[in-house]
Design brief:
Helix content: 25-40%
Radius of gyration: 37 Å
Oligomer: single chain
CATH architecture of the largest domain: 4-Layer Sandwich
Strand order of the largest sheet: 1-6-7-8-10-9
CATH topology of the largest domain: Purple Acid Phosphatase, chain A, domain 2
Structural class: alpha/beta
Order of helices and strands: HHHHHEEHEHEHEEEHEEEHEHEH
Largest sheet: 6 strands, mixed
Low-confidence stretches: none
Distance between the termini: 105 Å
Length: 362
């Protein structure tokens, strides 16, 4: 190995380095050079074999022992305190437990089985976005539908979300544009949530703005109906053994200016083989039928909602396509055809009369 002028200095560096207990700082102070220079010299000495890695480790240990032996005895005994943080082993156990619970909850909701006890035909009245506290809410239609849902034999109800405006953040200013206070809004919301025999209730984007601690989670819904954020998919198990799948989301992905039910229809064509697919959110009404490969019919429905007069739609220049705030899906388990199994009605009173007629025939 070629020698350099720096190599000639190494014996002195090695000697002082050993004398200082392999301390780069101590060697640098004695030789009046920087500590980084000494570190480079030591690395070069190890490269030339003048210092061995083992020898360096040995001297480093001796230096550490010497340093520790020179420590003065403490003037007090440090207190033994309980740590506030959870031990990492316990934290990992909690994470495993929480993941398992979340996985079980998620998997159990992929398709929720609902055993229907009512024999014969049943009706599912689907309420569009209510927005009960908005001055533009069509209360005459809402009260009519509530009474029909309560009094018609064999009728259950579902809601696609947005029970109230629930303005939050910068939108809170909009409470100044309605006569209903936030407190009164919750009164009306509780009334609607507990007045109707709900099969399911969906939280829309307005409902989900509440965040954790949502009062809806603690209201006693009649019949123990399903309450879910944004979406629910159910298998209605009818008494005669037939099954009708209902897939409701506040909205499905996908939009088209030419087809108001585009997102719902796309879901039926590409993702879900369900009998009834429901959405709301956009305050427009629409209906389409998709025939599946096995001949089953998927009824793709968007209900308009009860917010009949909307300043946001007026400013945005949105055309009024809300021809029905609700609809009724009449399910006849004894039907012999796919067209007879599920029938859709946009006139709620007519649907109630038809359901009553069918049940008399059973």
């Amino acid at each position: 190995m070629r020698q350099t002028s720096i190599d000639e200095q190494l014996p002195e560096v090695v000697r002082v380095y050993r004398e200082t207990g392999c301390s780069a700082r101590g060697t640098a102070e004695k030789l009046k050079v920087s500590r980084h220079t000494i570190m480079r010299r030591v690395a070069r000495a190890i490269e030339l074999g003048m210092l061995s890695p083992d020898e360096k480790l040995q001297w480093g240990e001796i230096a550490q022992m010497s340093y520790e032996s020179e420590k003065p005895d403490p003037l007090f005994e440090p207190p033994s305190l309980v740590q506030e943080d959870i031990p990492v082993e316990e934290l990992i156990e909690r994470r495993l437990h929480d993941f398992q619970r979340k996985a079980e909850a998620y998997e159990s909701r992929k398709l929720i089985p609902i055993k229907i006890k009512e024999p014969g035909p049943i009706g599912l009245i689907v309420f569009g976005d209510p927005h009960v506290d908005d001055d533009g809410c069509d209360w005459p239609s809402l009260l009519r539908d509530v009474e029909i849902a309560k009094k018609t034999p064999g009728m259950v109800a579902g809601n696609v979300g947005d029970l109230q405006n629930n303005w939050v953040g910068r939108l809170s200013r909009l409470y100044g544009e309605q006569s209903t206070s936030k407190r009164q809004a919750w009164q009306l919301t509780e009334w609607l949530a507990t007045e109707v025999p709900w099969l399911f209730l969906i939280k829309g984007n307005h409902d989900m703005w509440t965040g954790t601690g949502d009062p809806l989670d603690y209201m006693k819904i009649p019949g123990q109906g399903v309450l879910e954020a944004w979406s629910v998919r159910m298998a209605l198990q009818l008494p005669n053994g037939r099954e009708v799948r209902v897939n409701c989301r506040h909205d499905f992905p996908g939009h088209s200016q030419w087809n108001l039910v585009h997102g719902v229809s796309k879901a039926a064509q590409m993702h879900y083989s369900d009998h009834i697919l429901l959405a709301g959110h956009k305050h427009v009404s629409g209906y389409n039928i998709v025939m599946q490969q096995d001949g089953m019919l998927s009824h793709c429905i968007r209900v308009g909602g009860y917010k009949k007069y909307d300043s946001y739609a007026k400013v945005g220049g949105f055309e009024d396509h809300n021809f029905a705030s609700s609809c009724v899906c009449v399910i006849n388990p004894e039907a012999e055809t796919a067209t007879g199994l599920v029938q859709i009605f946009w006139d709620v009173e007519y649907a109630a009369d038809y359901l009553t007629f069918l049940k008399k025939k059973v």
